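Section 3.1: Structural characterization of target chains.
Under the original work plan, the team committed to producing a structural model for every single-chain target entering the pipeline before any wet-lab resources were allocated. The record below documents one such target. The sequence was received from the expression subgroup and is listed exactly as submitted; it comprises 247 residues.
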Amino acid sequence: MTTIAEFSDPRLVAIYDTVNPYAVDAQPGFYSKLAAEYGSAKVIDLGCGTGQISRDLARQSHRVTGVDPSAEMLAVARQAPHGDQVTWIEGDSTALEIADFDLAIMTGHVAQFLLTPQDWHNALSVLRAALQPYGRIGFESRNPKAKEWERWTPENRRTFEDPVAGTIEHWSDVQDVRDGLVSYTNHYLFTATGEELTSSAQLRFRSEEDLTESLGDAGWYVQDIFGDWDGSPAGKKSPEIIIVATR
């Protein structure tokens, strides 16, 4: 078993899209509708990863800039379909300059990787400055009331078929839950070779109240809050907290 950094090791980056699939009517559909409200939107995707959402929006003729700190993830994004239609920037929120974007998005639960209050505030502030007046931000964060981490166990493993790596078994296990911070390890078993790779990470689970308060502190007005990708309201059992806010 080998422990590695998930977003920098080429072996895990290469299978990222396989083990993190999006249902068409989930994230892609939601952010597509959000961008379509602007017509031909100018979109900034912070923490874009391999650019699944960025490339889908570019396919729909939106002008998209994807930002991510992982050079390895961006290398995959550039080579993937419609990757040549996106402007890619290697870096974090500090890599952004004042711009005139219509819409800022953070997909793939990127908001939860911003662990400290200061990092979260900085990202919200930088994105606000990057938008035109009345521009909007859209993002999702797992609902802490649903306690999804309780299902991150070896018993709840999933199997994926990658066109290059073959069959992959993926599961997670949690080491610690404390003050909204969940520490866990992802496991990837390549059944063809028997090799198992692991990567450790942390996620910040913020309540709906914490999210709305932090948005207000950064100069945002919360417009909509949903509990799932079908537009249902947020509640105790909702898997997500999906927020759309206006500059």
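The chain has seven helices and twelve strands.
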